[in-house]
Fold:
Amino acid sequence: MTTHAGLMLVQQILPLIAGAISRGRVKFVGAEDGEELVQDCVAIAAQQLDAAERKGQPFTPGTIAFYALKNLKSGRRSTGSSTTDVMAAGTQLSGRCAMRSLDEPVMQGDDHEDELDLHSLLASPGDDTAMAAGRRMDWDHALQSMDVRQAGILRASAMGMSVNETAAQYEVSAPRIIQIRQRAGQRIEEAWGSNGLEDQTPEWRRGLRAVHERRACRAAR
Structure:
């Protein structure tokens, strides 16, 4: 860049850019502020000014400032113009993603005591204390409706014992174990209702689990 172009950038183009941004002509994204956008836009203007000089193209301070601001409005920055990176301004301006704080509340009860945030949901893969206690109460109620053998076979299944191992322990055939399991399932359905055995995992967590499973399958292949 020549000395003349450098002086034009500082003395004429910079005031035009700063004035446009101060009047709200460019939308801020995330934690961006006015000073940061002015610096970014000046860097883009410097690149355009240098390219125009190298090619011998005519230019004025107004045209350089106009096209630099136009780049900024479209989400381009001096560091890149990605529209796929979730952190990029262009991606967020296109509406393909949105930045959210991990401390932002996502669920709230009427008494403001059930407030949850993204950090809490992502940090703990298990149930909270209240849900775990509720599950124990549900299981206690269901087990009370079964005889000792049904409850024992159900616990053996929960511990990961196979049908043959459970059959050997109770000295019955494997088909008999399957019949007892089916009856135990009927008892649970009677105690919990028809929807009691459905997967209660949140949709977003099932999505993450599916992604991890697909990656594991690809790695195994």
Observations:
- The first strand starts at residue 105 and ends at 107.
